[in-house]
Amino acid sequence: MGLPEERSRSGSGSGAREEAGARSPTRSWSPPPEVSRSAHVPSLQRYRELHRRSLEEPREFWGDIAKEFYWKTPCPGPFLQYNFDVTKGKIFIEWMKGATTNICYNVLDRIVHEKKLGDKVAFYWEGNEPEETTQITYRELLVQVCRFSNVLRKQGICKGDRVAIYMPMIPELVVAMLACARLGALHSIVFAGFSSESLCERILDSNCSLLITTDAFYRGEKLVNLKELADEALEKCQEKGFPVKCCIVVKHLGRAELVTGDSPSQSPPIKRPCPDVQGKPKEKPKHIRPQISWNEGVDLWWHELMQKAGDECEPEWCDAEDPLFILYTTQLEALFSPQGVLHTVGGYMLYVATTFKYVFDFHAEDVFWCTADIGWITGHSYVTYGPLANGATSVLFEGIPTYPDVSRLWNIVEKYKVTKFYTAPTAIRLLMKFGDEPVTKHSRASLQVLGTVGEPINPEAWLWYHRVVGAQRCPIVDTFWQTETGGHMLTPLPGAIPMKPGSATFPFFGVAPAILNESGEELEGEAEGYLVFKQPWPGIMRTVYGNHERFETTYFKKFPGYYVTGDGCRRDKDGYYWITGRIDDMLNVSGHLLSTAEVESALVEHKAVAEAAVVGHPHPVKGECLYCFVTLCDGHIFSPALTEELKKQIREKIGPIATPDYIQNAPGLPKTRSGKIMRRVLRKIAQNDHDLGDTSTVVDPSIITQLFSHRCLTIQ
């Protein structure tokens, strides 16, 4: 699937740049015929037929899909009931209320016993070090989940309880979350890169009665003493009057000493892991195992508990509208305390299973790899629940893209013959800086579909991803969705929908988008404004845990009758949707509304720019002007001449109104552990305001100091 009229040209060529930078690209990339021939949805016409039915007959459409799953009791009443209008009463969404099921049963027992796929690999685990590997089949995973479910039951965990999980990307993390689901307990997973204070806040907010964590782990060359952080969090909880009675600890870095035979006492990974674990540990000076503290009466070893647990555990049958998990989003971190998004059993199961199947065009022989951490919604939906519900084989990756070298991802793709690959634009832009060679030295012949998630992908990165990683033959599914939506909302289907670089294209089944103006009026045809959704889909969140009023205010109050995403969006003449960024990332310059994402895209199209972020800055005349942070590619030097080139490029791509007043050299950008740029912090830096608020989620705090020292003092 080559570039139109330029099949042999590099994506960095001028023609590609012109196409990438166009505000409304006229060209699109059609799905390759070989993908369409075998696709679940093989044509644009078929997509439109299915989408129309999903909106006009939602009960029948999702009811047919529900038949593929196991229900202990069927839905006794209305399949769907809801209210999106705050002026008409309480906001609520109910799918299949009264039907009973268990999501763990559906992603494991059903796959092993009904689908007869017990011996199929569920996960290839790839550790931080390339030689650290193992695999686990569906049958082995089911046994481990049943054992740990029995462990939790013995600790008093039952339906409705909340369990906090604070772990790196190891198989025990999947086991723990599925064991909670099997018992009807809610898991609240906290990303292992978060601070002890963040963990404490989340434990307190959801009233977790038990914590599951790990001794320590390496992230690249960095040692993270997770048990120490967990201890600090539990101490803070104690000080605030909420003692957590039990902490179960996986011996991860110390698992080598547990390998004494085939006894079930050893900590998973279930099969023998890497050579370092199979024999004598090969300690490297930089990979030291830390001494961990032990709190008698609170701390318990995972492997000791598992040794005593039985292999069978009857699942707890749950109502389709019973809560499944709580996941905290930082979307409103500048305004509120952490927001616990609550998802429920039945609707979430239907939606993530269906989006996984159709968006990635999943087939039985696929090897799927989503690089996201399970600590985020992408990992919940497309590392754990979505793939397992389809009986897929996935890669579970503990490491980072640049360790031990920048070809790590492509080495893994070649090693496991990955067919469907899903990652973030941040990772793509990071790896672009190192050129094509780290990618092309590894075979990517197995790849069939590429995907992006987390933020809008700028066209330049899209073109590089398509040309270099996908060898101009793999469709790219640029997915838009949120923690709150549970699964994909706007996305191409790889065999059906022509792609435009940077566009999330069209809505998924059951999704009815609209674009509103400030007055709440729906805009038709080509338009730009607020992105909203007009009716519920099964995966929508049901509430903010413990604060339904906040749920209603945040998502439904501004425009009654609609779910408000908080994102800006435009629709082009072909009906394609383009996410322009968070509404609070829209800038009003001299009365003109500008999208920061659009300006950032224009900046990174320049060959010298690896990454860019744009924020608003007060201006005495314009009201607001553009302050740009740019990170340069290796080999390029920041200079007044480059500044003028970048301004010229923005004027040409967007118009004179978008010419920035400030362009600052940025050695790096402050990002959260999930790769999101913290524009809140950048706004403070631009205004020389050192009152930054909570920066505990910043990966590298030293970048903030550097950015303050490089501030632009005068208009350029």
UniProtKB/TrEMBL annotation:
Q: Give the reaction(s) catalysed.
A: propanoate + ATP + CoA = propanoyl-CoA + AMP + diphosphate; acetate + ATP + CoA = acetyl-CoA + AMP + diphosphate
The name under which this protein is listed is: Propionate--CoA ligase
Name the Enzyme Commission number(s) assigned to this protein: 6.2.1.1, 6.2.1.17
Which EC class is the enzyme in? Answer: ligase
State the similarity comment. Belongs to the ATP-dependent AMP-binding enzyme family.
Q: Where is the AMP-binding enzyme C-terminal domain?
A: 598-676
Has keyword Repeat?
Answer: no
Which keywords label this protein? Answer: ATP-binding, Ligase, Nucleotide-binding
- What GO molecular function terms would the record report? acetate-CoA ligase activity; ATP binding; propionate-CoA ligase activity
Please state every residue range assigned to the domain named Acetyl-coenzyme A synthetase N-terminal.
Answer: 47-107
Q: What biological-process terms (Gene Ontology) are attached?
A: acetyl-CoA biosynthetic process
Example of a GO cellular component annotation carried by this entry: cytoplasm
Q: Which residues are in the AMP-dependent synthetase/ligase domain?
A: 116-543
Organism of provenance: Bos mutus (wild yak)
Q: Region Disordered: which residues? A: 1-41, 260-286
Does ATP-binding count among this protein's keywords? yes
Q: What InterPro entries is this protein classified in?
A: ACAS_N, AMP-bd_C, AMP-bd_C_sf, AMP-dep_synth/lig_dom, ANL_N_sf
Q: Where is the signal peptide?
A: none
